[in-house]
Predict the structure of Glutamate-1-semialdehyde 2,1-aminomutase.
Amino acid sequence: MTAYPSDAPASQALLDRALAVTPGGVNSPVRAFRAVGGTPRFMVSGQGPYLTDADGREYVDLVCSWGPMILGHSHPAVLEAVQQAATRGFSFGTPSENEVALAEEIVARVEPVEQVRLVSSGTEATMSAIRLARGFTGRSLIVKFAGCYHGHVDSLLAQAGSGVATFALPDSAGVPKEMAAETIVLPYNDIPALEEVFAERGADIAAVITEASPGNMGVVPPLPGFTAALRRVTAEHGALLISDEVMTGFRCSRAGWFGLEGDAGYAAGAPDLFTFGKVMGGGFPAAAFGGRADVMAMLAPTGPVYQAGTLSGNPVATAAGLATLQHCTDDVYTRLGEVSDALTTGVGEALDAAGVPHVIQRAGSMFSVFFRDGAVTDYDTARAQDVPAFAAFFHSMLDQGVHLPPSAFESWFVSASHDDAAVDRVLAALPTAASAAAAAFATIDR
Ligand SMILES: Cc1ncc(COP(=O)(O)O)c(C=O)c1O
Ligand SMILES: N[C@H](C=O)CCC(=O)O
């Protein structure tokens, strides 16, 4: 088994350079390792299930660029599509065929989506979707759930997941209080709280936005009936339902979370709008929002809600996204399921053997481990876990050549390129990491 020392001199040298010119040395906060300590690894290449860092060490990658790399790194067909697209030109600032083909692929996969608009990031997708919902309904309030993350949109940062959870922030400085007042934050999976807020303020609520199955406070799937309640209550009050599938989209199934929960989950009908990102960009900056044609018709140039982007529908990004989706076949989803089964079973057995309290939660091929007893159903229960135990586990895995998300509040991601050799490397590292977690486990109030 690979064993690496904890210090990483080449990464540290790059971090020192980065710190001089970039806040925290990183371009997205969770990457900085602040929640687990130590030196973030600066990667130089990725191939299949592996990443190689600046010190020449190879890691099994269980981050997969936070979800997009569903086929693994440098997948030959995606690489070829990108190379061909780049040969034809980098950006046209005009419509081009790949944009149409990618939109057609999304519409074909997610049945309720009639039209999409392409953007460059998940943040842009959610920001645009809530503007569209406000324009369509003529209302201003937005309901979101604690622990859900929808990108760094001002009004959606309240009690958000991901880095906001990792660093235990209530929200973000720099968001005007008037804007924060337009957002109502509710506990996830709490139907009475939802009904109560709609009974009081339903006529002013433009939309409820939810992660289709949250993965930014760790993985916390909706309890049976919760998604149906979201649809029922929003429909009763004339508000839109926005399902944020930036993380789950095209990963949990061909049609994302909707493909798993589908009509049965939504019961009274599909969401009005969806947001997508990550997998549909194949590792490049492409994202989308879409849904009902009558709502999408409100967008400029056909309607009064303005939304635009210089690089939206970029030909290289759309080529990568299209090639990725075209290769996300049934076999890919079968393999993602097998890898997830093997890893979640292995993690559970190793932690059981070491006597470490834990619960593993999963949504398709997204999963995470909470170092605590009992199911996690919302942000409060997600926070009541032993973060130092996670940090010890994380570092032991890293020293053994397995790259996990550097936060207890993030999903782990696998790819279809995780073959048996890569899975075995992870499984071999688990007993030592479980022992490290056992040693670190502290008694906390739960
Ligand atoms: C559910 C969800 N929505 C939105 C976003 C924002 O996407 P991006 O980071 O591409 O802006 C993310 C991830 O960051 C996400 O996980
Ligand atoms: N949880 C985030 C997105 O899903 C992680 C990506 C980031 O913010 O860097």
Summary: The mean pLDDT is 95. Residues 28, 30, 66, 149, 162-163, 216, 247, 410 surround LHPZP3FS (ligand 2) (CB under 6 Å). The longest strand covers residues 205-211. The chain has 15 helices and 14 strands.
